[in-house]
Amino acid sequence: MRYQGKITNWKDDQGFGFVTPNGGGLKAFVHIKAFSNRSQRPEDGDIITYELATNENGRFFAKNIRFAVGATTTSKSNASSWLGIYFAILFGLFFILLALLGRLPLEIVGLYFTSSIVTFLAYALDKKAAQNDRWRTKESTLHLFGLIGGWPGALLAQKTLRHKSRKQEFQTIFWVTVIANCITLGWLLITKSGSTFLSSILDQVG
Predict the structure, then answer these.
(1) Which of 90, 101, 104, 203 is most enclosed, with most CB atoms within 10 A?
(2) CA 128, CA 138: separation in Å to the nearest integer?
(3) Rounded Cα gap, residues 26 and 59, in angstroms
(4) What pairs with residue 47 in β-bridges?
(5) Across all residues in the chain, what is the average pLDDT?
C-alpha cells in the first residue's frame, strides 16, 4: 500500500528526515537512498508517495519513495530564482557604471570573476557529491565563497544546476551574504573612507 505525505525536518547534509502522512498519523523515517529518483534532492515541504515498513526496533520508515507529480514547490523557487537573476543584472549595470566613471579597479573585477568561477565549480561538485552519496561541501564554505564576491557564480549555479535553490534556510543566509557583499563593495567604491581603505589594500597587494 502506498501513502502520501509531506517531508519534514529534512537534513540535507546527512541525507535524512521524516514524512508526515496526509490526514495525520505517525511520522516515518526517510532516507535519501530510499528515493527512486536520486537526481532531485528532497526538501522540507515536498510531497512524496511511499510504502511503509518497520525496522528491527519496530520503528516506521519509508521505502520506494517517489516525488508526487506536480506537488513540489517549483513555482515559489522559480519566482525567487528570477528575482535573483534580475538582481544580478542590476549589479552588472552598477559595475558598468562604475567602470565608466573610472572607479572600478581591475583587481575588483578579477576578484568577482575568479570567485564566481570557483563558487560555480564548488556548487557543481557538491551536487555531484550529493547524487553519489559522497562527502559534501559545507554550506558555510559555499556561503563564504559568495560573501567574498562569488555570489554571481552561485546564482548561476542555483539557476542552471538547480542546486540549493529551494532550501529556504540556505537561501536566507545566502541573500544575507549577498547584501553584505554589496554594501561592503558600495562602501569601498563610493565613499571617501572606503576608497582610501581600498587604495591602501591595493597598494599593499601591489
Answers:
(1) 104
(2) 14
(3) 10
(4) 6
(5) 86
Are 142 and 177 a contacting pair, CB within 8 Å? no
Rounded to the nearest 10 degrees, the angle between the axes of helix 74-100 and helix 151-161 is 150
- In terms of pLDDT, which residue wins out, 94 or 139? 139
SS3 call for 95:
helix
pLDDT at 81 over 80: no
Cell 547524487 appears where? 131
29-42 in b/e form (b: 16+ CB < 10 A) is bbebebbeeeeebb
**pLDDT(132) > 80:** no
To 5 degrees, how large is the angle CA 109–CA 111–CA 116?
A: 100
Quick check: helix, strand or coil at residue 81? helix
For residues 18 and 30, the answer to whether their CB atoms sit within 8 Å is yes
* DSSP-based three-state secondary structure for 60: strand
Report whether pLDDT(79) > 80.
no
